[in-house]
Amino acid sequence: MWNPVDTRFYAKKLPVAIAAIGDGAEANYIRTLLEQLDVVTLLHAIGTPDDFLQVISQNESAPPYLIISAHGDKGGLIFGEYIEEIDVSSLQDGVMRPPVIAEAIRLPGTVVINTACSAGVKEAGEAFMKGEIQAYIAADEDVTGETTALFLMHFFYRMLKGSSLEEAWEHAASYDEESRLYRLYLRDGIYKVGDDGKKQIIEG
Q: How many CA atoms lie within 13 A of 176 on its CB side?
């Protein structure tokens, strides 16, 4: 598990890694937002599909939290086109699909939050959960960048105040209609926040 020295400070810091696929503007904004909450961050500037596959297959070096900042397509991650020298065998029409992720991911104990649109659909969630992660959080429809920022701010603020993972997700996902699109995948089931602001099981 990634364990920076900051986690051993007198005022211990929460460590969060960010994988930025494509345009890094959102990822850098997320990084600034989290650092304002006194979180220590590690930014992975993803250049190729293989870079990302290395990030999600770290095994013992896995971070406690990994935020994937990307654009999405029906549960897949959009990478786009590359020059001939780059290996794109993991992509289909420029998109990394859930089956590829399911085969590569090894992040034992990590909480993965995916900002890509439609990244919370069942196929994607189940693919990430194959990597022995603790939990997977993502919206199953398109959400705005503002919603993403608000969700992350509320989630990590509550985590830093001592809330449990489920409590922090429930609080962050109950802010408004778009926030309620963020699904929580755990090993015992898939959850959403209902109109009453409470956790509801979708499938388990």
A: 8
